[in-house]
């Protein structure tokens, strides 16, 4: 499924959070969203997932404006994994993953056998089969994050939008998750903090700064020393190894007034 | 004797009334067993037989029935505000106490009464013993003191007239008209004796009646209640007669402002709250910076009476007597 | 499956507790008498009981037990729903200020004497609940029903109507009104009659069905509104439907029995331990649990301090507060 973000802007209380953002994620592509804190990554993802109504522009799935889908229709196309979502309840892992079936459930019907197969597969995919009956409260941060991703998979979406899914994850699971996102057929738009992981697993990157797209393209083109100095305010040395992989090493804070401040 | 309330002693007509109440029909000959019908606060009570299991819903009703000598016709009493007057105590102990507080709907029904007597219409509410209508449906006549529903009485009747009306009504229902008449006569005499004081009273001394003190504020007698009437009878006037409420809550300052010639304090030590005993009230009067300067307080022109007697009851003439004596003793009356 | 068996067990427990509860009170009723009361209503050839005993069972006890069951079910289900919608484990039907609004409405009716009688008070409470709820929605119209904001606005609205109630009571200054209001605010089943049961049964059945039909959506609220929306739930619409439904249900419950706290708070928490947090099971089990809890609590309230009857709301708080403390400890926070 192709996701078009067309001239999207979002303004709240006279404060412009994102402005004129325009890009396309083609079907099956894995696109990384990078940028400093407050650059508008979360708002952009929420607009793309239909959770925020953009004040300007439109979001389209396969060319259809998502406003015509309605919440349920959107949820049948796209899964969204937010940053920190916790629950006070005594939900078990399997219950949380089962929430992914919500967009497909009739209000009177319980889970059917197909739902259960899908849930089991999602649990297995995220290595959670053994934890299925554990309650949310007893999980580590990483296990909770993986449960959320499993829940998104149980939605069997055409596209997955994830907001900083690597937080709380041990490095092993960070790699596993990024590998999975890169390998999947689904269209993926993911906000990532770790530039090296973004560079390694994403087909393309979108660099966001102060609500606007500063650079867009393959990692090699986006992650330049100049871009990083302008956006993050760091002096960075970027090298490419024999396999074509980028190595990013931060040398220090860039001098001068150029250093980017982060709004909010 | 006033005929303000329509009282009908039905003989032949009782056939219809008793049929409604579900009691067995009296024999067609219309003999002496025919019932009594009494009007009470908008309802006509049909009492086919002399009540033998009367239940009283408050202390005043209890004491009235005891004064009429009906102890052995009562199935229970309830809602004691203060201790029973000594002269009724022996009889009182013969009757079961269903509840020391207000009766519940279940308690009343469980006592299987054939008549309920109350001084206040508000005791018949859904959250207490149930409404009079629903009790009537279950065949229980409910009496409410005429004092508490002046709307249903002839205009111009004083609280004492209404009290006497109660004795008359109860006397009819219990077939003890003579005893009721005796009680009426003796209390009338007490009223007349007190009223005779008024002729000798100089000017119009003002009286403040303090019933209770709740959270520092005194509740005093306002317009229209028994205290106003008692004041009038002895030639004085209720200082708060202009407040259109029976027991308004006022401030000590307002009491001082009226600068009464006499203060009457209700004594209800059994309630057990600070301010319920006359002693407490007197102390508050003396300690308050404003009221302590009142001439009534400084000159100890303070009369203590049992609090319950400020409300209309068979004991009220006692307080009226105390007041009349006080007027004489203090020299308002020559 | 375990659940249907457990549910049937719950129903059996409810029937059992109602059967036991209907017997206990100021006078214990035998099942033979109960049979005669029911038999005579069904037109069977049984000898009817004396009218007052029949009235005690049929007019008071049976409606009271039924009303307790309906109100308990309502409050517990509303608590479970509000906890999900606001994402706050402390949410409870009284949180939204609905009970305070209902109190103001009932008091206005009593004081101003609009359409007096039992339906008047109930109608006033209902109108008050709707007014306070309307105010709540008006204040929340822009904020997107954020969970903390709902809580705080609810508290503010509640305080406003509490003050309004006090003001009305103060201005009326009538001791009987004050008493009736205080009694009503404590929450008591003493006024339960068939008319209340009929209305409560209808509204409870319809309301709980609506809430239950939203079970899947309610589960989706577990991780907050964003996640709920991403699962395809129309958050705003769903919140409106659920809040209106719970307000109506609470208003009816409050109108008939006053403010009974803690049922909506502790029952859902306890039920979660038993059947987990998914609303398809949680809601029916909460309804059952709430019904059993209030039926039993009210029976205890009737007899614990006999002959005095303690308002059921006092007992739900006495039991509820410590149970809630234990739940909080066990969960290690919210």
Automatic annotation (TrEMBL), chain A:
Q: Which PANTHER family does its entry note?
A: ABC TRANSPORTER ATP-BINDING PROTEIN, HEMIN IMPORT ATP-BINDING PROTEIN HMUV
Q: Name one GO molecular function term.
A: ATP binding
Q: Which SMART domains match?
A: AAA
PROSITE patterns assigned to the protein according to its UniProt record, in alphabetical order: ABC_TRANSPORTER_2 (PS50893)
Q: ABC transporter domain location, by residue?
A: 3-235
Instruction: For this UniProt record, give its keywords in alphabetical order, as a comma-separated list.
Output: ATP-binding, Nucleotide-binding, Transport
Name of the protein in its database record: Histidinol phosphatase
Gene source species: Streptomyces abyssalis
Region listing for Disordered, in residue ranges: 243-264
TrEMBL record, chain B:
Q: Signal peptide position in this chain?
A: 1-22
In its keyword annotation, does this UniProt entry include Nuclease?
Answer: no
Fe/B12 periplasmic-binding domain ranges (all copies): 53-334
Q: Which InterPro entries match?
A: ABC_Transporter_SBP, ABC_transptr_periplasmic_BD
Q: Quick check: keyword Lipid biosynthesis in the entry?
A: no
Q: Which UniProt keywords apply?
A: Signal
One short Pfam name that applies is: Peripla_BP_2
- Family, similarity comment: Belongs to the bacterial solute-binding protein 8 family.
Q: What is the name attached to this protein's record? A: Iron ABC transporter substrate-binding protein
Q: Which organism is it from?
A: Streptomyces abyssalis
Lineage, highest ranks first: Bacteria, Bacillati, Actinomycetota, Actinomycetes, Kitasatosporales
From TrEMBL, chain C:
Pfam families associated with the record: FecCD (PF01032)
Q: What molecular functions are annotated in GO for this chain? A: transmembrane transporter activity
Report if keyword Transmembrane helix is assigned.
yes
UniProt GO BP: siderophore-iron import into cell
Q: What is its main location?
A: membrane
- The keyword Heme is annotated on this UniProt entry: no
Q: How does it sit in the membrane?
A: Multi-pass membrane protein
State the InterPro entries in the record: ABC_BtuC-like, ABC_transptr_permease_BtuC
Q: What is this protein called?
A: ABC transporter permease
Per the record, the similarity remark reads: Belongs to the binding-protein-dependent transport system permease family. FecCD subfamily.
Subcellular localization: Cell membrane
GO terms under cellular component: plasma membrane
Where exactly are the transmembrane stretches of this chain? 62-82, 94-114, 120-139, 151-171, 241-270, 282-304, 310-328
What keywords are annotated for this sequence in UniProt? Cell membrane, Membrane, Transmembrane, Transmembrane helix, Transport
Q: What is the lineage of its organism?
A: Bacteria, Bacillati, Actinomycetota, Actinomycetes, Kitasatosporales
